[in-house]
Each structure stands twice: as C-alpha cells, then as structure tokens.
Design goal:
transmembrane; 199 residues; transmembrane helix; membrane; 9 helices; 73% helix; Acyl_transf_3_dom; mainly alpha; Acyltransferase family protein
Amino acid sequence: MRNSNIELLRILCMFMIILWHLNIAVEQNGVSPFILKDTIYSLTAVAVNCFILISGYWGIRFKLKSIITLFLQCLFYSIVTGLCVHYITGAHWDIIKILLPISTNQWWFITTYIMLYLSAPLLNKAIENTKNLSYNILAFSLICVYFGYIFKNPNNSSGHSYLQFVFIYIIGRSTYKYLQHNDELKHEKLQYLVGGEFG
C-alpha cells in the first residue's frame, strides 16, 4: 500500500523540478539575482535523486504497456514541440531527433529513467537475492562520488547519469527490504532516509 506522505513528497519533488527549470529560464534571460538563483538551485537540486529514491523504495515493476505508452507520449510531445519551435523561430527541423527523442537523449532525464526502468527487473532480483548490500552500496558510493563528482569523471560528473540512477535506486530498494525485515524499523518513514541522505 502506498503511503500518502511519500506520495506528497513525490509531488513536492515534481514541483521542485519545475522550479529548477524556471530558474534556468530566468537565469538565461539575465534577470535573476545571484543569491536568489543559487538559493533556488540549492533547495531544488535534491529533487531528481529524491524522486528516484522513492521509485527504488516502492520498486519499479516492469510493464510492457507502460513503457510503450511512455514512448508514445515522448514521441507526441517531441513532434508537437518540434513543430512549434520550427514555425515560431524558424529553427532547423532535425527529423532524427524529433522522431527518436529518447535514443538521441533530447531530454536526459527521460532517457536515463527508461534505461533504469528496463534494468529494474534485474536490479530487483539482485537486491532480493543479496544478503548484505552494504558493500555494494559502498562500492557504488566510491564510483559515483570519488570517480564522478570529485574528479568530474564523464561517467557521473554531475549526477545526471544512468550510474547515478542505479545507485540511488539500490539505496531506496535496499531500504525497503531492510525495513520489511526489521520489526523495530518497519513503520519508519522514508522521509527520515531522505533527510539523512541528502540533508
């Protein structure tokens, strides 16, 4: 059963993502004060990781119908936005990118999320059959942080990567598994994990 508080947190994450992109648009027009801009970025940067953490906590259940629907939705919006941009600004019509928005990484999040979605059955199975996930999470932490953020390795220089999504998903799914097998913590809320992980 879904927890209404966690679903509210998911909605909040969506709002934060919208606010992040509005901040980018304002910044590009040069009308955003430095302090305000950085404050908004700081407050909303957690949104994507938190969203994936929640997805991992509940677990992604692969459904062919869902993935086909998502592909068709992306194609529809790609064609509509492509036509609008072309006729309003006269920008070049790139038919390959328009018809293959996911494959050409038009929107990094949806492309990476679909990669995670397709990998979810394998990840779920691995987590269910692994007794001690601490070493796995530690290894992913080393790869993502040390070989990613610190030295700006292209595999995960900013957290906008498939590797990052897998890492966060494993944390979320492992937390769910741990709570289900720990009577003392079974009723703890995911918000505590979010606060401890990203606070």
